[in-house]
Write a structure and sequence with these properties.
Layout (H helix, E strand, L loop, with lengths): L1 H28 L2 E5 L2 E5 L14 E7 L14 E6 L5 E5 L4 E5 L5 E5 L1 E2 L5 E2 L4 E4 L5 E5 L4 E5 L5 E6 L8 E3 L5 E3 L9 H8 L6 E4 L5 E5 L8 H7 L3 E4 L5 E4 L6 E4 L5 E6 L13 E5 L2 E5 L7 E6 L5 E6 L9 E10 L2 E10 L9 E6 L5 E6 L6 E5 L2 E6 L5 E7 L1
Parallel strand pairs: 2-21, 8-9
Antiparallel strand pairs: 1-2, 3-32, 4-5, 5-6, 6-7, 10-11, 11-12, 12-13, 14-15, 15-16, 16-17, 18-19, 19-20, 20-21, 22-23, 24-25, 25-28, 26-27, 28-29, 30-31, 31-32
């Protein structure tokens, strides 16, 4: 009888395995893969390999911060990025408060670094945070036109200044090289920069550890209109442990993986429930010493990207476009007072809303094949992965970091 039960169990297991393999083969067959000059292009169709049911589960672990938090240590304002050190300590770049907040792995407040200003360890609405293998913290500080490097204790180690370059978000490769995204707020067109620097404008600028420009990664799409080109070529990036570069585009159906040397390895797209066609090209006018910009109107798709330890690529995207009452943004005021630039940031929109079904996570394998989707029920602006932890950052609505375990 025991032998019969064992045989039945093995048979049932084989049937389940064969069913899973058949489903995977059927889903993979739905993907169209091309080879274009040695570069892999994947056109994903349907819901992906998993089908309708995700093969991964997100288990809630911790929540840090809230717009209405009574605790000053977790009363974040426009939190911009998250980093984690080898001990599991969590660093939150609290941009609107011009500070870095350090917490233990279980969420206990440990320390606060930084303040408003232009001196060492001071910031003016810093935009991004990265951590290197030595656990030094790299803070992108665009309005001070610099990258500020801090130790894990918050002490300023060095400042990398950029006099003639608009500053975007920085990432640090294992060899110390710096990779910079295009700035989110830019008043300079690519053509102007090419004329000024004599360098072709790539998507991601590559610099040596001292900030000297040594190359670029990624190809711009020429829209024959500078304002439209700037918008359409907006891009978000991340690095994996081997320094591969992953790019996603908010206004293009385009996900890319590059080698550490900048060679395009694969490009992927997928079916979207909305169009990314240009609805309005926008306008740009110079008026004396000022400018007037009306942004192009295009639906958005990919908003952030992260890679886990198994090489899976996680993309934050919109399941649908945000309704008017769900939209929030940042108003920026820039002026000159007593010969010094004054900058002000203010959240615009209804931040009382905390729940929405507009966001989802798409998970791709290391070759660009869509595995499946994980629906979300909160507002999310950026995603980060450290170990088996997924960090979902709600920058504007809740000013919260939601932490999950990837199961």
């Amino acid at each position: 009888m025991k032998a019969l039960r064992a045989l039945l169990a093995i048979t049932a297991g084989l049937i389940l395995a064969m069913g899973f393999m058949f489903n995977n083969a059927r889903q993979l067959a739905a993907q169209k893969v091309e080879d274009i000059n040695g570069m892999r292009v994947v056109h994903n169709q349907g819901k992906g390999v998993w089908g309708k049911k995700p093969a991964l589960k997100l288990e809630p672990v911790l929540k840090l911060g809230d717009l209405d938090s009574p605790d000053e240590h977790t009363a974040f304002y426009m939190p911009a990025a998250v980093a984690v050190d080898k001990a599991g300590n969590i660093y939150v770049l609290d941009s609107g408060n011009n500070r870095l907040q350090k917490f233990s792995a279980d969420g206990k407040y440990l320390a606060s670094f930084g303040r408003f200003g232009q001196g060492p360890g001071e910031f003016i609405y810093p935009s991004w945070l990265a951590i290197n293998s030595s656990e030094n913290l790299y803070v992108s500080d665009p309005h001070n036109q610099r990258l500020e490097v801090l130790g894990s204790d918050g002490k300023s180690l060095r400042t990398i200044k950029f006099a003639d370059l608009e500053i975007g978000n920085f990432f640090v490769a294992s060899n110390g090289n710096l990779l910079m995204e295009p700035p989110e707020i830019s008043f300079r067109f690519a053509a102007e920069e090419e004329e000024k620097t004599g360098q072709l404008s790539g998507l991601i600028k590559v610099m040596d550890p001292d900030g000297k420009l040594i190359g670029a990664i990624g190809q711009r799409l020429d829209m024959k209109n500078e304002l439209l080109s700037n918008t359409v070529n907006s891009v978000f990036m991340t690095l994996d442990k081997d320094n591969h570069v992953y790019l996603v585009f908010p206004y293009q159906n385009r996900i890319e993986k590059y080698s550490a040397e900048g060679k395009l390895i694969w490009r992927a797209d997928r079916e979207l429930p909305y169009s990314l066609e240009v609805q309005d090209k926008g306008s740009f006018e110079r008026r004396g010493n000022g400018i007037s910009i009306r942004e192009p109107k295009i639906n958005r798709s990919s908003l952030s990207v992260a890679v886990d330890g198994q090489g899976r690529v996680w993309v934050l995207t919109l399941a649908r476009q945000l309704k008017k009452e769900e939209q929030a943004g940042i108003g920026v005021s820039i002026g000159i007072v007593d010969g010094k630039q004054q900058v002000g940031y203010k959240v615009i929109g209804d931040t009382d809303l905390r729940k929405t079904d507009a966001y989802k996570l798409e998970v791709f394998d290391g070759e660009g094949v869509l595995l499946g989707e994980i629906p979300l029920d909160i507002f999310v602006d950026h995603i980060f992965i450290y170990g088996d932890r997924l960090f979902l950052l709600d920058k504007l609505h809740g000013a919260t970091v939601h932490i999950f375990r990837i199961m």
